[in-house]
Amino acid sequence: MHFSLLFILIFSTLGAQTYYHSSIGINYPTYNARSFAIGSAHADNSALCLSSMPSNLSMGENQLFSIVYSYLGHSNLERRSIVVKDSFDDYLTEADYVRNINYNQSSAIAIKYNKDIGKIKFSAGFSYLPFKTYNYNYKEEIRGSLPSNDGDIFSRDPFLGNHILESEGSQHLYSIGSSIDLILNKDLKMSIGLSSNIINNTTINESMVVDMLPMDDDISGYFSDIIPYEIEYNLKGDNFFTFGYRLQFHEYAFGLSFEQSAVIKNNLNDFTYDYLEGIEISENLEGVLDTTYNIISYDILYSDNQVIKNYINDYLELKTSDIQKPKKYGLSMAIMNLLKNDISFILSYEKYEYDKSYVLSSNEKYSMGIEHYTLNNTALRFGFEYQTSPFKPYISSTSSFTFGLGYKVKKLIFDIGGSYSQTQYSFPDLYPVIDNLFQDLDSVNESNLILIGSLTYKF
Predict the structure, then answer these.
(1) 10 Å Cβ neighbour count for 204?
(2) How many angstroms separate the Cα of 340 from the Cα of each of 59, 362, 379?
(3) What is the pLDDT of residues 266-285, one digit of tens each?
(4) Cβ contacts of residue 344 below 8 Å, gap of 6+?
(5) Mind listing the pLDDT tens digit for each residue in 355-369?
(6) Sequence-separated (6 or more) residues with CB below 8 Å from residue 87
(7) Cα–Cα distance for residue pair 181/116, rounded to 1 Å
(8) What is the CATH number of domain 18-265+299-458?
């Protein structure tokens, strides 16, 4: 029976590789449906932009006050497969043995204030955002093998129980900041913004359970020999600053942003995977057979398989290390819709820089997005993202398609944005049966759908 560990992607946007991200947290690249639909945080002009591009606060059709609420939903379909080979040990097909759906939801809210002072436009804002979620649910159905009643036609596979893994916890981000928009002449204006961001503390709960149905026969050989566990650990938040700069010449705008790095302290210092290995069977005084067990670690279990040991070593190092938020550098070029003082086309580049000593690698993201208004004033949006992976060499780069629309009714604006991506990678069986130890890597296929709905009211 297999119970594989998810080894990731990227965050593609977000996502993918859910189990792996349950250790470092899944986060969103942007919290506004409009900017999400065109694939760039540099396109957000609500107060939700504070943590990524605060200079955009003064962009758009601004009233004195505006408030925005976003609902964020992330659905992940995970399929894990065993690679089936023929008698010549060549690849034949993949046989799915587990299928899980994880759905995480959260909310974001922000408010901003605008004031024109001559040629200067001043904006200030506050936002409350979901920074990371550590939620993950895994359920692997375990079935046995019994002969049919007539013993000739088929074999039965009765349900015996489940491998169940659950992780729960989340962190939020509080941001406050302001921007100044300077009109230099009729064709040239400049915006500068700065924000302070605070990541809160949280507690993560994780448990792994082997759930067996009561039966007369011994069915333990169908289940993993991992020692079940239940852990609770604390994550201590941090704070960071974000700087944004935007220069607009007529309908062309150029943006720069910088996010300071941060470190989330993790007090889970000692965590590993241990297994029970039966080493001796003897008969006690009552004539009942007893088994003597020995506790072994994963590096002993896979002593002859360095590839699997490397996968597990890197995962455990990441799980027990402090969680690093990388430095983030952003660059964008946009074509503006001058009638709406907003972006109609944007190209963006982002670089995520980790410390060289950290287990994750620095990576980059490229995105392109477009917004088009129909005759009934409905905004149609599309985008494309390509991101290199921080989980080298295990995960390749990922691509995602973004989409959305928006509509305005007087002072009320409704936007919806979505993203779809697929990821395929390999990972070993972390929860094996020792007597049937699988030395090959499993194939993991993930489909990720993210939807964001934003409601903005200006007054």
Answers:
(1) 21
(2) 9, 37, 12
(3) 999 888 889 988 766 656 65
(4) 334, 335, 336, 337, 370, 371, 372
(5) 988 888 899 999 999
(6) none
(7) 9
(8) 2.40.160
